[in-house]
Amino acid sequence: MLRKLYDWVIAYSAKPSAPWALAVVSFAESSVFPVPPDVLQVPMTLARPDKAWRYAAIATIASVLGGLVGYAIGALLYDSVGKFLINLYGYGDKVEQFRAAYAHYGHWVILLKGLTPIPYKLVTITSGFADYNLFWFVVLSLITRGARFFILAALLHHFGPRAREFIEKRLGLVTLGLLAVVVLGLVAAVYLF
User: Fold this and answer.
1) Of 11, 31, 70, 176, whose CB has the highest number of CB atoms within 10 Å?
2) Taking a C-beta distance cutoff of 8 angstroms, is the pair 48, 14 a contact?
3) Nearest Cα to 120, choosing from 63, 74, 81?
4) 146: nearest Cα among 22, 47, 29, 53
5) Angle at the Cα of 35 (from 166 to 128), degrees rounded to 5?
6) Looking at the whole model, is its pTM more than 0.70?
7) Cβ-based neighbours of 22, under 8 Å, separated by 6 or more
8) What is the b/e burial string over 122-141, where b = at least 16 CB atoms within 10 angstroms of the residue's CB?
9) What DSSP state is assigned to residue 15?
């Protein structure tokens, strides 16, 4: 089943609608959706390494635009939608602690957490809730999300053929490794958030 899903994503990655799907997932992941854009960016870049930089730019721009929606949820709808999403991820009891940290370290929170597998929507919603400066939120989001997606693009562009061969030979092991990174990211979020 995993092989069929991988083959489908690789085949889909070559279609003209794939960049739109990447944009939608990147946008939604920054505000409400639990699936990270890497799930599409990696196979799309492996299928079309010549478009690595384009895919990174799409993911970055869409992620920051989605981050603005997350910010709006935190600023305008925290008591309803924002609180629900934060509680859904199990961080409801840590929001006040996170808000206090924003008063002193907001820029570092955005920069560091935007690079990690910690769900970025937590940063965007809390940034709005904490009334973090919108201009700096956008600038720092562009830096951190751009770094994340462009570093990934550079690695895949450079190691693409070898990475694809490695992934295809050891798909189960790679999937377990990625799952472990996500789980460790969520565990780290519990202790850092």
Assistant:
1) 70
2) yes
3) 63
4) 53
5) 135
6) yes
7) 37, 40, 41, 44, 55, 58, 59, 62
8) bbbbbbbbbebeeeebbebb
9) S
* 9's tokens: 């994503």
Indicate the residue type of 54: R
Q: Do 129 and 74 contact (CB within 8 A), yes or no?
A: yes
Q: Which two tokens stand for residue 46?
A: 């492996």
Closest by CA to 43, choosing from 169, 163, 181, 183, is 163
**Residue entry with tokens 């030979």:** 169
Compute the C-alpha angle 43/47/48, nearest 5°.
Answer: 115
Q: What is the pLDDT of residue 34?
A: 72
Separation of alpha carbons 95 and 84, rounded Å: 12
What is the Cα–Cα distance from 62 to 188, expressed in whole angstroms?
25
2 — phi, psi (to 5°)? -60, -40
The single residue listed with the structure tokens 């992620």 is: 63
Specify the amino acid at residue 152: L
8-state DSSP, 79: I
pLDDT per position as a tens digit, 57-100: 999 999 999 999 999 988 888 777 777 777 776 767 776 777 77
- Look at the block and give the residue holding tokens 């492996």: 46
Helix, strand, coil shares of the chain as percentages rounded to 5? 85, 0, 15
d(CA 108, CA 127): 12
